[in-house]
Fold this sequence. Notes:
Chain A is mainly α. Chain A has helices at residues 7-27, 31-56, 59-89. By secondary structure, chain B is mainly alpha-helical.
Amino acid sequence: MEPIRFLGPTLALSAILFTLGVAGVLIRRNAIVLFMCIEIMLNAVNLSFIAFAQLYGVSGSIMVFFVMTVAAAEAAVGLAIILSIFRHRQTVDLQNINLLKG
Amino acid sequence: MAEFVFYLFAGAAVLGAAMCILQRNPVVSAVWLMSMMFSLAALFILLGAQLIGILQVLVYVGAILVLFLFVVMLLNLGRATSDLRGPAGITAAVVIGGLLVIELLALWRYTPGRLAAEVAQAPQMAAQLENAFPGGQLAQQATEANGVVGAIAAPMFQTYLVPFEITSLLLLAALIGAVVLAKRRI
């Protein structure tokens, strides 16, 4: 059996990247940058799927394939929503989009 | 050698993600995100998922990031005004991010042997990885027999056929939704 490489370091890298994505969502107000942070989080999860795919077979790789598909769909619809919000409000700053604020 | 490559690209990925969330200009953020995704593609290939590495470059860098850049261009957002949240937001980010990273970094200690022993709840499993993870060995045999793409394609069109077909419905819905939402007047 081929040696399984970098399980712990890969999971740690995945944790760091996911945390950076969460921090980005919390500190930024620009809606487009928020979407980029969501992509960082999805990529971090993909990385841990690939780390475990070394142990558990190709199911992890197939799951990454599905995550990529969902990410593409999410980016397309989300950016279309941002475009239409920008047409109405002339801004993508989330501080100015507060219609639902309690 | 593999260690050096791993830590080089891991550092590049962390740098790319950090710069992406800290740069105020969305275009610069997108370019740093691109560098992070290239590093992750290299890591995927290093970890034995060559097809996923190529797909990462094609789908994420080639499609999703270009879409981001197009939207930034359409909205004309290139101005460099800071959009960082105030002290409350930064504090929340540091606290939540710190807790999350402490919690998740516990995974650093895992080696395949330790994982095998904990999953099977039997310490002797750590020495016999072939028995603990039969899936990985089957995947390696499939890769040797059918190639990298064949090893993924066979289960995708057999075991995962229904999810694969549902994915096409999802993409169709996203296509229609994006056109309807972005169009000025239908």
